[in-house]
Known about the structure:
By secondary structure, this protein is mostly helical. It contains seven helices and no strands.
Amino acid sequence: MNLPNRLTVGRIGLAALFVMAMLLPKDGAIMSHFPYGKTLALVIFLVAGLTDWWDGWIARRAHQETNFGALLDPVADKILTTAAFICFIEQPSYRPGVPLVQAWMVLVIVARDFLVTGLRLVAGSKGLVIKAEELGKHKTASQMCTIIITLAGLAAREDWHGAGERFDVLFSRVVFGMMLATVILTVWSGFSYFWKNRDLVLHDA
């Protein structure tokens, strides 16, 4: 296995560590709580993001692009971002009993990714390639920014205790606004993919 593919596989391992840092309780059956867990999760996510850039750069520069990498690289990205959004559902907002991120928002994001992946599989079976669109790139950038800002806010709130009630209210509202914008952009980009490639899906419906 070449270095780019090892980095891709490593990103999946980092996703598992990310979930552990985010969700392991301070007490319970698994006594493995990470001190400064949210800060660690932020660092892990940033490192994983760097490996995403690094493996692609190395693969192109060293001419080490493989079918294995082409298949696994986007899957590893989806695992990492989906893990982050699911973990956010478990985080409380400033209102008791209300999650920081609504489950329906995460469902929409994950469903869109499944549908677009399915569309690409259908296209691949017909010898076609659906290239990433500019709108899809904006969607990815929006998701990454939302995740990083949310992780930074969680670290400030829970690890460094430098945030008071006002910060908590503002942070929760900012996260809701960013998630809402991300959901809208995600749906828009997904609709664009399907509309431009509708003949692939509807020709034998």
